[in-house]
Amino acid sequence: MSTIPVEQPTSAPPVEAMPSRGFWVEAWQRFRRRKLGMTALIFVVLLGMVALFAPAIAGTKPIVTRYKGRLYFPAMAYYNRRWENAIFRTEDKFRGRYPKNLKENDPESWAIWPLVYQDPDRRIYEDDWPGVIPPNPTGHNGKPYLYYLWLKGWDALFDTNRVQEEFSEEYLAGPPPFNLFGTTDRGVDVFAQMVHGAQTAMLVGFVSMGIAATIGISMGAAAGYFGGAIDIVLSRLIEVVMCIPSLVLILALLAIVERPSIWHIMAVLGVTGWTGIARLTRGEFLKLKQMEYVAAAKALGAGHGRLMFRHILRNALAPILVPIAFGIASAILTESALSFLGFGDPTAPSWGDLLSKGRDAIREMWWLILFPGMAIFLTVLAYNLIGEGLQEATDPRLRQAGH
User: Fold this and answer.
1) Which of 3, 154, 202, 352 sits CB 3.0–4.6 Å from 340 for a disulfide?
2) What phi and psi, each to the nearest 5 degrees, are found at residue 183?
3) Do residues 271 and 254 make contact, with C-beta atoms less than 8 angstroms apart?
4) Above 80 in pLDDT, residue 380?
5) Mutual orientation of helices 262-272 and 246-256 as an angle, nearest 10°?
6) The predicted structure's pLDDT at residue 396
7) Among residues 360, 323, 363, 355, which one has the least CA distance to residue 338?
8) Phi and psi angles of residue 61, each rounded to the nearest 5 degrees, phi first
9) Which residue has the higher pLDDT, 145 or 211?
10) Structural contact between residues 137 and 174, judged by C-beta atoms closer than 8 angstroms
11) Whether 269 contacts 335, CB under 8 Å
12) Is residue 246 over pLDDT 80?
């Protein structure tokens, strides 16, 4: 009797567990599916790049120049006026007019210039760059070059001679092709002010909300974690600050300062804009401190600081980012309103200041309203869309529903 061999069952290969995705990875993937939010994020990133590289985009100071055998970076003065080299400011007294003075004082000098030779603080004169850059028009004559292209057709963009002749004939002392967005009544280029005004807008938004987030998260975390008398005192403080109108408080504080700068405005906006973040942080801490992982961390001997900022805050940060994004938009809008009312920093280019200059001549100088108004609207809208996208991407109810 023959035996039939029986195949021994082979063990199935072990199934490798797929690594679980983190919360922030899933939130980013959900955020990416929202087209409006991603479009707004791309817009803000591009605006940030414009603000960061503003001196290389529009300016009259060289990005880098070799002068009398040494390399200098005069464009750094657009970030801080004190960073302009003393040899140009006090010794050789360039007075901001580099092309002519560089060649006269050092014929072997060379320079790399910004993309657009226009200054956000002053007008371009005939002797700035003789034979190369014409002077900026003043009064109501500084119409945008883009407006001319819209009237004459975009093919005129490639015919510089015809542009200069026909544009000057149509508007008499109209702007040359170098004023993309036109000029103010004093002849200052609007495009340069818009580019450098992006620095002010982004700086105000991030610095003021950085201050507000630091105060709000600290106050809310202490109130929610410790509870008791600390919670009562801090909650009453939050309510008192909320009862004070922010704009009135800002105007009152700025009236005390003799020469308000953009840093004073950022500090005031930060000190008055933390209450919403504090209340939300307090609520999250009250909820999360009852979780099991917090009790386990306590049992392992974690201190209060480690519990608050290492364990609880990391899990409470997602909903806190939403009011921060909305707060950046509110800070930019508030700074523009203050500049429009004349309470801003007169030395810092601002979109609100351009709106204020076009208020008295809105019919004759409509470009002073159109371009800064669009910039403020699009920037505030972008931050609001980012905040809305963050709110939807970090909502646990949408996560459970599989959206």
Assistant:
1) 352
2) -130, 165
3) no
4) yes
5) 140
6) 60
7) 355
8) -100, 135
9) 211
10) yes
11) yes
12) no
Q: d(Cα 277, Cα 265) in Å, to the nearest integer?
A: 19
Beta-sheet pairing, 110-112 with 70-72? unpaired
DSSP code for 116: B
By three-state DSSP, how is residue 366 classified? coil
Amino acid at 212: A
Maximum distance among all Cα pairs of the chain, rounded to whole angstroms: 118
- Give ∠ CA 318-274-286 in degrees, rounded to 5: 50
**Both tokens of residue 201?**
């807008």
- For residue 262 the two structure tokens come to 């953009």
286, two tokens: 């009250």
Place of tokens 């409470």: 316
Whole-prediction pTM: 0.81
Residues 318, 390: Cα–Cα separation, whole Å: 8
C-alpha dist (Å) from residue 247 to 82, 270, 344, 381: 31, 12, 13, 21
CA atoms within 13 A on the CB side of 290: 6
Alpha carbon distances (Å) from 271 to 212, 213, 249: 6, 10, 10
Query: How many angstroms separate the CA atoms of 119 and 278, rounded?
Result: 42
b/e map 24-55, b = 16+ CB within 10 Å: eeebeebbeebeebeebbebbeebeebbeebb
Tell me the average pLDDT across 269-277.
87
Q: Indicate the helix (H) or strand (E) that contains 111.
A: strand 110-112
Give me the domains of the chain, ranges plus CATH numbers.
Answer: 61-113 (no CATH), 131-188 (no CATH), 190-401 (1.10.3720.10)
Q: In angstroms, rounded to a whole number, what is the distance separating the alpha carbons of residues 12 and 326?
A: 53
Query: Residue 114: CA atoms inside 13 Å, Cβ hemisphere, count?
Result: 26
Instruction: State pLDDT tens for residues 336-354.
Output: 888 888 777 777 888 988 8
1-14: per-residue pLDDT in tens? 455 555 555 555 55
